[in-house]
Amino acid sequence: MRRRLLAMLIIFLFVSSIFTIGNEAGKGKIKNEKVVASITYKSSEYPIATLQPIVVITQPEDGAVVTDPHLVVLGYASDENGMNYWEWEWRWQGGSYSNSSYFETAEYVEFRIDIYGLHPGWNLVIVRFKNIYGAIGEDSVNVTYNPPDTEPPQVTIEEPEDGAVLSNPDIMLRGVARDNVGITQFGYTHEWEGGATGSSWPLEEPTTEYPFEIPITLHEGWNKIRVEASDNASNVGYDEINVTYVTEDTVPPTTTKIVGDPQYDEGFYVASETPFTLIAEDNEGGSGVKAIYYRIWNNGTWTDWMEYTRPFTLPGEYFHYLEYYAVDNAGNEEEVHNQTHSVDNYAPVTTISISEPSYIENTTELGEHWIVSPDTVFDVKGVDDCCKIKRIVLYNPVTQKKDKNEDKVRIKLYRWSDKKGEFVLVMTKTLMPGGEPLIKSFKGTKKIKIKATFEVTTPDGKKKEVIKEEMLSCKDLMDKGDSHKYLNETEDNEKIYTFSVEDSQPIHVNGTRVIFSEFKVKLCPKPKKGVRKCFSGIKSTNCRIWHNGKWDDWTKIEGPFNLPEEGIYYLEFYSKDNIGNTEGTTNITIVVKADIHSPEKPNRPEGPTSGKIWKNYTYTTSTTDLDGDHIYYLFDWGDGNFSGWLGPYASGETCEAFYSWRKEGNYQIRVKAIDEYGMKSEWSDPLPITMPKNRPIYNHLIVHFLEKLLERFSFLRQYLHLSRIFH
Questions:
Q1: Bridge partners of 455?
Q2: Cα dihedral across residues 389, 395, 397, 400: positive or negative
Q3: For the whole prediction, is pTM greater than 0.85?
Q4: Mind listing the pLDDT tens digit for each residue in 178-209?
Q5: Are 724 and 639 in contact (CB under 8 A)?
Q6: How far does Cα 492 stand from its chain's mean position?
Q7: Helices 714-726 and 697-712, axial angle in degrees (round to 10)
Q8: How many Cβ atoms from other residues are within 10 Å of residue 620's Cβ?
Q9: Measured over all CA atoms, what is the biggest interatomic distance in the chain, rounded to whole angstroms?
Q10: Listed residue (628, 610, 631, 723) closest to 684, CA to CA
Q11: Exposed, middle or buried, 301 (CB in 10 Å: 0-12/13-18/19+)?
Q12: Of 183, 319, 342, 191, nearest in space to 265 by CA
């Protein structure tokens, strides 16, 4: 029985001795972010009798050089008296880390320490064990950690400069190569059109800095030189340059300008998005193009000279001057090119002129629409001009004779919106006879529409509202102002037209009751060079017509036209310029009736054919209207003055007017008629008259005095002549 118990005890002790015990939580296992350490009991080993523990580090070898940042330290400790405490310490340049732990008493243990993240340079690991009597034994190991080398050498060619143009073929290539560990191999290559050469050599000792000077003979044309350096880890660094060798270059390069789309007239007209490309070429065998430079003038200002790197566009509007030149690597500069372009971003505008007979009605079924006859002529014209209307002044000069309401005119004024492609109402005003004028200023519009509404009395005594409409472009206004002899003056690229009673013929709006007393336009800029206009011009004015339930195809308008069949029409039109800017579509509704007519041509005026100046003479005329409408008459006295519209008169009723001439001479009197709906007749045949020089001397002196008075007080002249013409 005793033997059995003794055997069981021996087995228990043997089994327990082979268990591995960590010093976790103070029992032998120590772990942090960098180190994991453990010991293993080996009680089956026989310790050597010593006064203190024996500690041996078996791995790594002392003085080892490693490249792996993970270090495993292995070893053992023994003591016949038994050990129960150990500690270890890890030191490096600038820091340290340590730990310790008690464990169950053992005579022999093995340990393992895993260090993660060695520090570059030396790393010292010390391991100590203490026996139960307090005696301490230790061992240490010192390893050097060299991190893996992944950084290539840095090579710099200091001369010659990259891109240099050289006239001497023999050069010295100078520079320096540097590495964090050490350069072991060095070399270069030299390439040119049709050949290459090079060399490389090892260095006797690795070095962190290697200055170099390499003699090289260049070949004519381009030369590419590359220098390379490598280190022990086979990392390769390099630098390279391209230089040009020329024997002699005195010819400048040549630049070609390419104008993209949209464009017109060989690129003279462009848009804001049109790209400009500059291409320069050097002469054969030359040094090559170094750079292209350009600058742009617009609205009175030059940009700085800019180096061309990619296609560019022209900023701003209207005329631009573009200057450019190239320079080669030998320093030869091309003569500066100077060219003019005009940026045309605006669509043209289209106006329509509708002859008599014509007027506007407004019904529930059709809304606002034109009433015309089969003989009414439609003149649709496109205008591509950069002038813009800045201000207009409208005036009602009608003399109040009968019904005040018949003499007033309600005006609706519209401006053309380029962005919307339509007319926008900007003002509504009623003009009373001789009252306050309509004055409207614009930032700038290319065309306006004026709609006039007024009352007339029909032959049966009823009141009827008549609507007339007129569409005018900026150019239309300027043409009318010039042909009607309006006074004008230009200042700061703006032109002001003013009606002069003595010298001008009034520009009537919608027939009878409204005139332009003044308007201002902003003129197109003129280039210093060339005579072309700032806009590209009309390519086509197009229209289409709806009638009898179908639309015609869009067609180019070649001239005035009429609508010969009765019925309802829809007319749409627009214009397109030569660079591609397209106007928004305008549409109007038209009703053609066969039973509306203009008054017949008035009879030639009757009255004295000779007389004296400053004396009033009476003249009469008459005409008929097939529709029986009331008629107004306008006398042209032949000296630049007009009577103003007189009436209304019944169809066939005689109209009487009187006038006196200020200067002797020969004149021709003629007269035009217009009915209550605004339908005008043609001018009558003229009546020639003569006003001989026949007046007393005292009359001459009085007239001379009055003329001097009017010159000093010019407003009296305007008032008197307005009264005389429109009364």
A1: 465
A2: positive
A3: no
A4: 998 889 999 999 999 999 999 999 999 889 99
A5: no
A6: 27
A7: 110
A8: 15
A9: 182
A10: 631
A11: exposed
A12: 342
Instruction: Judge whether 605 and 619 are in contact, CB under 8 Å.
Output: yes
Side-chain half-sphere exposure of 265, counting CA atoms within 13 A: 20
- 678 burial (CB, 10 Å; 0-12 / 13-18 / 19+) is buried
Distance CA 41, CA 581 (A): 97
Whether the CB-CB separation of 289 and 255 falls below 8 Å is answered with: no
Query: How far apart (Å, rounded) are the C-alpha atoms in residues 614 and 439?
Result: 36
What tokens appear for 451 in the block?
A: 């709609």
CA triplet 433, 623, 596: central angle to 5 degrees? 80
Residues 6+ apart with CB under 8 A from 461: none
Give dist(CA 499, CA 268) in Å, integer: 38
Is-contact 175 155, C-beta < 8 A?
A: yes
User: Three-class SS of residue 277?
Assistant: strand
Q: Which of these, 278, 321, 314, 303, lies nearest to 530 by C-alpha position?
A: 321
User: pLDDT of 95-148, one tens digit each?
Assistant: 999 999 999 999 999 999 999 989 988 999 999 999 999 999 999 999 999 888
Give the residue carrying structure tokens 């007749």: 681
CB 670 within 8 A of CB 659: no
- SS3 sequence, 531-579? CCCCCCCEEEEEEEEEECCEECCCEECCCCECCCCCEEEEEEEEEEECC
Residue with the two structure tokens 């009537």: 508
Neighbour tally for 299: CB within 10 Å? 11
Residue in this structure with the two tokens 């971003």, named with its chain if needed: 345
Token pair for residue 244? Answer: 């040009």
Q: pLDDT-based confidence at 47, cuts 50/70/90? A: low
SS (H, E, C) 626-640: CCCCCEEEEEECCCC
Q: How far is CA 38 from its chain centroid?
A: 74
DSSP characters over 664-686: -EEEEEEEEEEETTS-B-PPPPP
Q: How far apart are CA 227 and CA 210, in angstroms?
A: 12
C-beta separation of 394 from 384 below 8 A: no
User: Residue 537: which region, alpha, beta or left (left: phi > 0; alpha: psi -120 to 50)?
Assistant: left
Q: Where do we find the tokens 């010039």?
A: 482
User: pLDDT (tens digit, 9 = 90+) per residue, 319-357?
Assistant: 999 999 999 888 899 999 999 999 999 899 999 999 888
Nearest to 536 by CA among 361, 385, 661, 329: 385
How far is the C-alpha of 28 from the C-alpha of 104, rounded, in Å?
9
- pLDDT above 50: residue 594: yes
- Phi-psi region for residue 134, left (φ > 0), alpha (ψ -120 to 50) or beta? left
Angstrom distance (rounded) from CA 184 to CA 547? 94
Confidence band for 693, pLDDT divided at 50, 70 and 90 = low
> Closest by alpha carbon to 329, among 293, 287, 283?
287
Of residues 647, 660, 640, 661, the one with CA closest to residue 602: 647
- Euclidean distance between CA atoms 416 and 412, whole angstroms: 13
How many CA atoms lie within 13 Å of 512's alpha carbon, on the beta-carbon side? 33
